[in-house]
Structures are given as structure tokens and as C-alpha cells.
UniProtKB/TrEMBL annotation:
InterPro entries in alphabetical order: MFS, MFS_trans_sf
Pfam families per UniProt: MFS_1
Annotated region described as Disordered, given as residue ranges: 263-288
Protein known as: Major facilitator superfamily domain-containing protein
GO molecular function, one term: transmembrane transporter activity
UniProt keyword terms in alphabetical order: Membrane, Transmembrane, Transmembrane helix
Coiled coil: none
Species in which this protein is naturally found: Mycena metata
Subcellular localization(s) per the UniProt record: Membrane
GO cellular component: fungal-type vacuole membrane
Entry's transmembrane regions: 20-39, 83-103, 115-136, 157-178, 184-204, 306-324, 352-373, 385-405, 411-434, 446-464, 514-533
Recorded topology in the membrane: Multi-pass membrane protein
Length: 559
């Protein structure tokens, strides 16, 4: 039983705000995958591995994030956030400690890491991703269940924004405390990410919603559910749908049916004279109408909307992951082109600039899209899925812009647009997932949907690594370049030896990959338009126009 309304904390009460802030703090510690470019070139140089191998290490963290989603989601939905937060602490601490160990150990000059060491490094990277997602899933789920629909996209957007701000937070803190010290930076990641989950373990919990908040949400979602299933099946005259609020009958109304705030439905009122089979059928239909969609398990996998969202998220997130994991290498390639006085320290500054820019804009995108999608639904009465077209278009423009930049001083422009676009997809998709498939199994459903970045992320990132490796300078090219520069210093020579895998052709090192991701983003625009069109058809079939008219169900108390 849900507690009485007077015992349920208010919307802006201390318990809800505490959960929100603690969830934000955990999210900041969970999104450190985006800081990979801040140390990955140094890690590659220290271990003498290729760009393709480096991308495999980075992808292991992404695989850890997205493959573990259904597992953590199922636990959070059934057992709450504390178990995943405990695993998050262990995985983040062990993962970053292991990566730091490999960096500190390094390899002798002229050699590379063994196959076993490479496998262990990949395993450590996987743990950082799985651990980050464990904490993040618990934080987002608790926030989504603690706030009503009218504020859900905004509040979850705040938590999601913390995930995007993580790279900026840790890279800036490391720059202040340990400038140029990659080993200390990895130590900061190890301790800092683990400690955030300790705070969340004690402070994060789902706060029940009041009956009024639940009713406000369920009336608005009944119409969309009606479009998918035959809710108003008239086996007799005991149930009558009312399409307009003005036509409400004056008497004979049933007692209000209110779902439990924890997602466990209370039994609806029963008429003593109604046959048992009729009561059972009526309850099932009423649950769908009041609760909105509740799609999960096999029904999720055969739902066309799931596969549309899966494809869109795969292409967009894969594009973002490719850029985020490799922007450090991109900035170094642009900086090295035509620059005989290549300075690794100066190059790392441009590298850090891109990481911080992406992180800030990632944060901004998650907040902005939450506000935009909430206004689209609350003010215009349109479903949040309409915003998918905007998000896909932003990504497409980001790839066009990145393909045109041939100077490292201008790369920040592409990083701004990519970071903002990437933030919008992960600020929007969780609430669209709730809108399409329901809240009861949200974390599990979102976990399955989150498998999609594995497809695009692996494809685009490996393509980038192979593209960059194909443009590595050969021995003849390197010798000619050195001979042509008569004034090159010994320090520069040392830098060139450390960066033996450095491409010197600027934009040409990777522009072909941007052509692939740009095409994928354009396809995502088309699929987003198809998704919006399908959603509009559902609303029209349910008798809901652009203003989002509601449908109310009345049930006579007499048979």
C-alpha cells in the first residue's frame, strides 16, 4: 500500500531534492568514459600500441557500459539502486587502478605490450564502463521514479547532464592539481569515481509519488495506450468510454483507481454482481488505460518502435562515441600537419581543450533537451519523440562541420556541436523510452535499448582507427620529413620517436570516417521522421490532436 497523501513528500521536499542532488553527484562520477581522450594518446605512446588497438581499449569501456545495461536495469527495477551502486564502487576503483598500473609500468623502448597485458588492459577498461553504468542506472531510475511526469524529463535531464559533465570535472580537477601528470590523473579517476558511489549508496532512494501526481500522468497517457490496444472493448454495457470531459455523467461513478507509487497496482473497485471473468477482463483493460504502455520482455523485442529507436540511437551514439574517443588523436593530427616544431606538451593542451569542450556541451545538451521536450509535451501537447528529428539534424550538421575543419584552432567548433548533440540524445531517449514502453520496467527496457551503441560505436570507432593507422608515416616519409627540417631540435626528435604512430596529414587522416558517420546521421533523420509520423498516427487514431486532448474512462458501479 502507498502511504497516505499527507505522508508523501512534496515535489520540492528535502527527500526528493536529496535524491536528485545525490544522483547528480553519482552521475558525475559515472561518466568518465568521456574522459578517455584526455589520457588515451599518452597511454598509447607509453605502451607503443596502434590507433586501432587504442580504439579497442576505448571500446571495451563502451561495451561495459551498454552490454551491462539490461543486467543493472533488471536489478534496479526489482531490488533498488544499492546493489548496483556497490558494484559500481568496486568496478570503478579496480578498473582505473589497473589502467594506472599499466601506464606506470610502460614497455621498454622498441617493444609493445604482450597479448596477456593487452587483454588485462581491455578488461580493466571494461570494468570502468560497467561500473559507471551501474551507478548511473541506479541514479537515473531513482530520479525518474521520484518525480511526476510533468517534471520527469527536466529532473532526469539534470542527472543525465552530470554524466556528460564528468569529463570536464575530472580533467579540470587534474589540470589544477596534477598538471601534465597522467599517472596522478588516473589515480584521481580511481579514487574520485569510487567515492561518489559511496555517497549515492547512502542517499539515493526512490521517493513515492502522491496519488494526484500519478493520476495526472495516467490520464495523459491513456490515449496513447488506446491507439495500440483495444482498451474499450464492450462485452456489455457496464463500461462506457467518454471522449470529452464535458459529457461526464452526474452519478454512478466508480471509486477512483490509483496505482501504487512504487509501481505496484492496487486492485480496482469491483462490482459484486459482475461475473469473475468480466472483472478480470475489465481490470486488464483498465490497467492499460490508466497506467499507459507497459511493454517489456518479448513484447518489447517484437515492437516496431523499439527497433526504430534502436537503429536511431545506434547511429547517433556511435557517431558521438567515435568522435569523443578519438578527438584527442584528431587534434594531434591537425596540430602535427606542417608543424616541424611538434611539441607533445602543446599538442596535449589542444587535446584537453577538446575534451573539456565536449564535456561542457554534453552537459548543456542534456539539460536543454529536457527543458525542450518537457515544453513540447506540456505546452504544445506533442509527444517527446518529435524532438528526435531535431537531435538527428544536430548530429548531421556536426559531422559536416568536422569534415571541413583543417586547423586545430577551429576544432573546438565541431567539438561544441558534437558534445551538445551527444548530450541531447542521452537526455531525450530515456524519457522517450518511458513514453513508448512505460515506467514499470523502464530500467530493464532502457538497458536493452542501450545495447544499440555497441553496433554503431564499434563500427565507427574501428573504422576510424584503421583509417588513421593507414595514414601513418612510413620510414621513408619520416626520414624525409626530418631531413627537410634543418633546425629541428633534439627535444622535437624525442617527441617524434614517442609519437611513432602519429599521422602527419591533418584532416586527411580521418575525413573518410566522417563521411561514413555523416551518412549514418542523415539516415537517422529519416528514421526519426518515420518515428514521429508513426506516433502522430497513434494519437490521431486515439482521437488526440496536436493539443493532446485527454480521454477519460468512466465505469458504472451497477452491472
Amino acid at each position: 500500500m502507498a502511504p497516505p497523501n499527507h505522508a508523501v513528500p512534496a515535489l520540492l521536499s528535502v527527500p526528493r531534492i536529496t535524491t536528485l542532488l545525490a544522483s547528480l553527484f553519482v552521475a558525475i562520477g559515472s561518466g568518465t568514459n568521456y574522459v578517455f581522450s584526455a589520457y588515451s594518446p599518452q597511454l598509447a605512446a607509453r605502451l607503443n600500441i596502434s590507433h586501432t588497438q587504442l580504439n579497442i581499449v576505448g571500446l571495451a569501456a563502451n561495451v561495459g557500459v551498454y552490454s551491462s545495461g539490461p543486467f543493472w536495469g533488471r536489478i534496479v527495477d526489482t531490488r533498488g539502486p544499492r546493489i548496483p551502486l556497490g558494484f559500481s564502487f568496486a568496478f570503478l576503483f579496480l578498473g582505473y587502478t589497473g589502467i594506472r598500473h599499466f601506464y606506470d609500468a610502460g614497455v621498454p623502448e622498441g617493444s609493445t605490450v604482450s597479448s596477456l597485458s593487452m587483454a588485462l588492459l581491455i578488461a580493466c577498461s571494461f570494468m570502468t564502463g560497467a561500473g559507471g553504468n551501474a551507478g548511473f542506472t541506479g541514479a537515473v531510475n531513482s530520479t525518474a521514479k521520484s518525480f511526476p511526469d510533468k517534471a520527469r524529463a527536466t529532473t532526469t535531464g539534470i542527472v543525465l547532464s552530470g554524466f556528460g559533465l564528468s569529463a570536464f570535472f575530472f580533467s579540470t580537477l587534474a589540470h589544477i592539481l596534477f598538471p601534465g601528470d597522467t599517472s596522478s590523473f588516473l589515480l584521481l579517476l580511481s579514487l574520485g569515481t569510487a567515492l561518489t558511489t559511496v555517497l549515492g549508496f547512502f542517499l539515493i532512494r526512490a521517493i513515492p509519488l502522491s496519488a494526484a501526481d500519478i493520476s495526472e500522468h495516467t490520464v495523459g497517457t491513456a490515449a496513447a495506450a488506446d491507439a495500440e490496444t483495444a482498451i474499450f472493448h464492450h462485452s456489455d454495457d457496464s463500461e462506457t468510454p467518454l471522449l470529452d470531459e464535458e459529457a461526464a455523467p452526474a452519478a454512478g461513478l466508480a471509486e477512483e483507481y490509483v496505482p501504487d507509487a512504487r509501481g505496484i497496482e492496487l486492485s480496482p473497485p469491483r462490482s459484486p454482481s459482475r461475473p469473475a471473468h468480466s472483472r478480470s477482463r475489465s481490470r486488464s483493460k483498465k490497467e492499460e488505460a490508466i497506467e499507459g504502455p507497459n511493454i517489456y520482455g518479448r513484447a518489447l523485442w517484437i515492437n516496431p518502435d523499439f527497433w526504430l529507436l534502436f537503429a536511431i540511437l545506434s547511429m547517433l551514439s556511435g557517431t558521438g562515441l567515435m568522435y569523443i574517443n578519438n578527438v584527442g588523436s584528431m587534434s594531434q593530427a591537425l596540430f602535427a600537419k606542417g608543424n616541424p616544431a611538434y611539441d607533445e606538451v602543446e599538442a596535449s593542451k589542444w587535446q584537453a581543450t577538446q575534451v573539456s569542450t565536449i564535456s561542457i556541451m554534453n552537459f548543456s545538451g542534456r539539460v536543454v533537451i529536457g527543458l525542450v521536450s518537457d515544453n513540447v509535451k506540456n505546452r504544445l501537447g506533442w509527444p517527446r519523440s518529435y524532438s528526435l528529428i531535431l537531435v538527428s539534424s544536430l548530429f548531421f550538421c556536426s559531422q559536416l562541420l568536422a569534415a571541413q575543419i583543417d586547423d586545430v584552432t577551429n576544432l573546438w567548433k565541431a567539438s561544441v556541436l558534437v558534445g551538445f548533440s551527444y548530450g541531447t540524445i542521452f537526455g531525450l531517449f530515456p524519457t522517450v523510452c518511458i513514453e513508448f514502453f512505460g515506467l514499470s520496467h523502464f530500467s530493464e527496457n532502457w538497458g536493452f535499448l542501450s545495447l544499440s551503441p555497441l553496433v554503431g560505436g564499434n563500427l565507427f570507432s574501428i573504422a576510424f582507427g584503421r583509417n588513421l593507422d593507414a595514414h601513418e608515416p612510413g620510414e621513408t616519409t619520416a626520414t624525409t620529413a626530418v631531413a627537410a627540417v634543418a633546425t629541428i631540435t633534439n627535444a622535437v626528435k624525442r617527441a617524434l620517436r614517442v609519437t611513432a604512430h602519429q599521422c602527419l596529414e591533418g584532416r586527411s587522416c580521418y575525413v573518410s570516417t566522417l563521411g561514413i558517420t555523416g551518412t549514418a546521421c542523415f539516415a537517422a533523420i529519416l528514421l526519426s521522421a518515420l518515428t514521429a509520423w508513426r506516433e502522430r498516427r497513434k494519437l490521431m487514431a486515439a482521437g488526440v490532436g496536436g493539443a493532446g486532448r485527454t480521454r477519460v474512462i468512466w465505469e458504472d458501479t451497477e452491472s
